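Many introductory courses stop at the sequence. We go one step further.
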Amino acid sequence: MIIKRAISTEKSIRTIETENKLLFLVDPKANKHQIKAELESLFNAKVKRVNTLIMPSAEKRAVVTFSPETPAIDIATKLGLM
């Protein structure tokens, strides 16, 4: 499993509402293409872009931008973030 969990902070909730993005904690060895493929299959959603960040604590985060026809708020509701 590449996607470990969704990250829910004040800033990430704001980006869900304004920029149609979600923040996930992912496997450090996963690449952007693998992250995109897993999210599209899990949520039946169209992913527009994936940006990754490697944190000093050796964890990897993915900022996922969804296409306009797939609202991030719907996926956040399915995950229980909203």
